[in-house]
């Protein structure tokens, strides 16, 4: 079970790094802030931050392990912060409340990440046994889950708007489909984060807990495919979307 989970999470990590790099390369010449934010988010958090933190926590050389773990956690914080502000900028660009929510999420993530690193520096891989580290981990999962719930809500909302436009022959079916897939991906991630947070609160180790491992691995492999369809869809897939009837679910 654990080996299968590692493979699934590994696929999601590689796909996140690939998609993140593509988005950054696309954003630099066009100076597109949303694409840059999302590209950095995928590169920093699942692409490099999480693997570095996992590898660092398992290294026998304590000094090298602490450095790698600290860098990994910092990249996770940076990546998730970019994700928070992507939501605010893309879906609620005129909302002061949305910008404030993104800022609060970033601060909570930074504080929680700092506590996790502090605990790891104190006792190493067993840091999750510390109440403060466990609470910080739950906080990070809760904040991230709320951010994904936000993005899922906005994805479904914008997809609904595109469906209404399609009745009058307006709207891009490819863009509408991206909103729908984005909402599905966010919803799945909310489930995975909720399962892991619940396990942590119950005193379990989410790296070995059956429910957490199953949820994380399943969501990771499904979202790997969704990432491709959202950001770098195959030409055959986009042709299918544009050929489908305007009022159908496939088209919007």
Name its key features.
single chain; 252 residues; mainly alpha; Rhopdopsin 7-helix transmembrane proteins; 83% helix; globular
Task: Please provide a written account of the structure.
- It is a single chain.
- With 252 residues, this protein is mostly helical.
- The protein has a single domain, classed as Up-down Bundle (Rhopdopsin 7-helix transmembrane proteins).
- The protein is built from eight helices and no strands.
- Helix 4 runs antiparallel to helix 5 and helix 5 runs antiparallel to helix 6.
- The radius of gyration is 19 Å and the shape is globular.
- The mean pLDDT is 87.
Give the topology:
Layout: H1 2-30, H2 33-58, H3 62-91, H4 96-123, H5 131-166, H6 173-201, H7 210-231, H8 235-243
Shape: globular
Please state the CA-atom Rg, rounded to the nearest Å: 19 Å
Task: Tell me about the largest β-sheet.
Answer: none
β content, as a range?
Answer: under 5%
Q: What percent of residues adopt helix (DSSP H or I)?
A: over 70%
CATH architecture: Up-down Bundle
The stretches of 5 or more residues where confidence is low (pLDDT under 50) are: none
Question: What is the CATH T-level topology?
Answer: Rhopdopsin 7-helix transmembrane proteins
CATH class: Mainly Alpha
Number of DSSP strand runs:
0
Distance between the termini: 37 Å
As for the number of domains, it is 1
Secondary structure category: mainly alpha
H/E element string?
A: HHHHHHHH
Number of helices: 8
